[in-house]
Input
Amino acid sequence: MLFIDEIDPKTFVNQIVSTFQNPPDLVNHIFVISPNLHGHCVFIETLVDKHKIEHELLHFLSEESINNELQSSPDIIDILQTRIPLSSITETTDLNHCVQKLLDGWCLLVIECTKQALLLDISKTPHRNVSEPLMESTVHGPQEGFTESIEINLALLRKRVKNIHLRIEQFIIGTETETKVRILYLEHLAPTDVVDEFRKRIRSIQIDSILDSAYVEEWIQDRTISPFSTLLKTERPDVLASHLLEGRVGVLVDGTPDALMGPVTFFQFFSAPDDYYQRAHIATLLRWLRILSFILAILVPSLYIAVLTYHQELLPHSLLINLSAQREGVPFPTLLEAIIMMITFEVLREAGLRMPRIAGQAISIVGALVLGEAAVVAGLVAAAMVIVVSITAISNFVAPSYKFGITQRILQFSYMALAGFMGLFGVLCGVLFTVVHLASIKSFGVPYLSPLAPSKFRDWKDVFVRVPRPWMNTYPQVTRKKRRRRI
Amino acid sequence: METARISTWQFFILALGYLLGTSFFFRIGGLISIAKQDAWMIPLWSGIAGVLLVLIWIKLANYYPGNTIIQICIQVAGKGFGGFIALLYIGYFVHLSALITRNLGDFMKINLMPRTPIVVFHVMFLLVICYAVTKGVETISRSTEFLFPLVTVTFLLIFFIALSEWNWDRFQGMFHMNIWTTMKETRSLIGFPFMEAFVLMMLFPYVKSKNRIKVSFILANVVTALLLSLGVFFTIGVLGVTRASHETYSLFVIVQEMHIGTFFEHLESTIALILLIVIFIKLSISYYCAVSGLCQLFQVNNRSWLSISLILLVSGLSLGFDNILENIVFNREYYFEYMLLFAVIFPLLFLFLTWMKKGKEKRKVVGSQA
Amino acid sequence: MKELKKGIMIMMTGILLCCTTGCWDKNELNELAIGELVGADRDPDTGKQTVYYQIVNPEAVAAQKGGGIKAPVYTYCVQADSTSELGTKTANLLPRKLFSDHYQSEIVTERYAKQGLNSLLNFFEKQHNRRSNLYLFVTDSPLSEVMMTYLPLERLPGRSLRSIIEIQSKLTGRLSRRVRIKDLVENMESSRLTVMPMISLSGSSPSPTTDRYEKIEANQGNLIFSGGAVFKNDRMIGKLPLNQMNYYFILKGESEVFMESLTINNRTVDVQAIKPKVRRRLDLISGEPVWKVDISTKLSLVNNEQKNELTLENLKMIEEKFKQQVFQKATEFYQESISKEWDLFGLEEKIKYQNGKEWDDMKKRGIAWDKTKLQLSIKSEITDIGQTINPYVGDNDGNSSN
Output
């Protein structure tokens, strides 16, 4: 521990420089106030706004009038603090604090013969501009997405929720990265117990580094071993705002464009931002479509296997004959055939994600031609199987949240295995297991299956249907503890 | 004890699912074979008996609010004798779970997958049940709440489609039964499902508003009686007395022969799945009662190990019958008397003991005042 | 914690191993022989059973990609002394597992039906993979010929038979859809008779090769509907001719459509009644049981060969004639069945279950069900006269036959 008031300022500065092991981007600029009064301006040039330092800070310090004033006055620090044309200035004596701030992009100002150092915020890091959200694109509605800078993200949110009740609490987490994590909520809406729970869980995080909100998510989620997520993720400020306005709590993490929100219920994964930006009945129909595709995505391959290998009588007569003719000569058992095709598709999808854009076309050719057409013509798989795989894949992509799509894939594969073992009985055991699991999950104290189980009929306004705005005049019951009606 | 809370509505659904669930599948054929065209009347008077029983249980529970039947045993009759009766109760819960499990296994084996060993069905299903039980009564009631509409809608669908087979001629010969013999022969209907419902006393402490248990429990009984009666009526009208009394699973046969146009036929596997759901509801309750009863009696805090090890016991016990005929005969001949012990004699005994105690206390108070 | 994990791992392995036994019921689609039509016969002298299975050849039936016409079905024949032996012998013969869930129809021979179908029906009801809602046919042609013929157009014979029933019930009213195995089973323990359709082979010989698909002539070797087989319990006791079938079904209240050809002014008029409403009630009139049947229906004029203009009076006449003719023919049919002691309408049971003093008196007097009178009342009105009002008047003398 070193303090400036215990040693010579010059040694202090040297000490700081040597702490950093003198990297190339550390600047220690020495300026002269008067022949016997020197000052040090220390900063990391990759983290600061150099233009500001040169044109505002140094320019100001070299002004004649100021120099005179400084020479004559006994309390240099006080003068500087009041006169420097920058808004965030603090004084310190602590070396560690200085080092920390320098890493945040602040500038350290040390005047020889004074017993304190000044820290000035001139940080400017490279960041992306606000652009359209990549993962959650919508047809209508705002097209701004979060970026990697927490300040910009907060600005995007503030712009939408102009409310004095918006509370922002900051936590610094990660022993190595010292990342800013902020929880946001509207004090007059969010239930106190939920906010307390968030605070408690975030405080309990013990981690060395945080590079993405997923790091935080894994610490604060309710269930670790579960395919279902108990936190919503979004890169859209409007979505975050809408959730805050229903009394939920948001978490912003510096360095990531994804905000976390909770508590979340199962049925929220079926609503997309688009639902609220177009007419109610269309939104309702689309929501049914999403629920249908969810069911298709998780059950179609397993039902196909179960019906074809155990319950052939379920097929209509002509379909049975048709499928039977297709399978004539296919060398693999249905289960194996299905698993091969599904895994191939997963490989294709993963390859499509990782591949350089330019090579993308190759993937689609291989996928469409080789897997679809050639495999059937060669008699390796039945044509119906290809259709099943395509239906599953397409329905999977309907899920508004990418994370939920992954959930579906996990379920779909486990049901397939069960169908292969026990037919429909196996599938049903799997489904029952899933239902029990869903019923047992709580997200920050809110049952995951609500408002269906436990049934809260009033909340069905925004579950299977999306009623027109004028009728959606009450808050959801789970977050209604503080206020009932919206207006 | 868990700190779980279930709402009145959830309790109602649990009770209804418990009462109606399997009896709707397994009772109808048997009733028709005994009482022919008049079979639809039997559930009605059995339901009345059921309501009377509920009143007794509620009376008992009201003396010991916040206690399950196991705790009541110990409180009323002391650690020794009461503990013994509590153990008998737990034994019954386990036996009941085994019976229900066997119902499922029989059904699957006879109708859908005749070559698969029956144990596989049992173990696999019990695993799911075990998971639900480990997660507690809140989870069970929430899953029931979620699944119940599904079952209802499917049943309604079946009813409307199968109505095309309806024929009033099949009711010829109504009002010809000998009431006394019929009552005697169908007494097992009071045993299963109405007497079995005392199992729900294990859930009383978790219900949020205590004073509405009574209403919802009685309502569940009444609805069960009406729906069972309707189910019998429907089966007679659609399937006819002759066939219904020969078939093991009359409802299953109805669905087997149902078709929508000539395209959708042979839909019986789907009804089997619905059966699985109702068995899930019933079994998870009885299994939960067995596990939590054990926990309460021996003051164990962690349910999960108990419930896992109980799988072995239940799946072993469920092999007690060799075939479904033995099950049916047991049910028809002895079940009523067997249930009488647990559902009527013990509760009445407890009530009696409670009154004695109360009387003593009163005398003491009076004595001390004098 | 480590031990717990180990325990869970062992348990999971055990469970998964357990689950694999589920595969015992697994069948791949191409391991199945899809049965489509089944025919059964029993020799009254030796008691030998013969069963014919028609197995679908899926590749020939499903959409074809060239290759010409292939055989849509193959017929296997098995002979055995008992039902269980039939099973083993079938396994000797069939290279695939017999899949019986999708039987479309079942045929039995007349001589088998006359011996009683008890064992067959019981066997059928006991199997979990056999549906009792398939149509049962009785044939008076030799079973080997019936089962060995290819049918044109609807190339699966089982389907073709099924559509005979659908079409007859929809278009002519000479059959209802309630001629399934289960309808026979339901009456197995009652005194009510059941009528099942009969089919016979048209022409002199069957056409057992696919060559027939190349011929234009379709009648030869076809299966045609030829009447009704009357069953008492499980035994066939007689036949109903084709022209009486529609009266049977209308009295039974099961017709969807009813056709009648009338002669008015010496010329033919055809009318059709769609979904006639039939109310039937048993009553006691002066100590005698009377079966009241009220038929009320809306008629549509299908064919009118009269030379007269179609006037309201003329319509009235047609209605009147329809009433008379149906009344006469249905009563005739009823009397005939009574005289044969055929309880086609379950009157015996109906009387048995009647309550009340008068009925008891009647039963005491020993009046049997076959003394029941039929009281038929018919109400009809013509609502649909077709696209023309007056018929075109040509030069011919209007003889309906050409």
Summary: The longest helix of chain B spans residues 69-112. The domain at 8-360 of chain B is CATH 1.20.1740.10 (Amino acid/polyamine transporter I). Residues 259 and 265 of chain B are 5 Å apart (CA to CA).
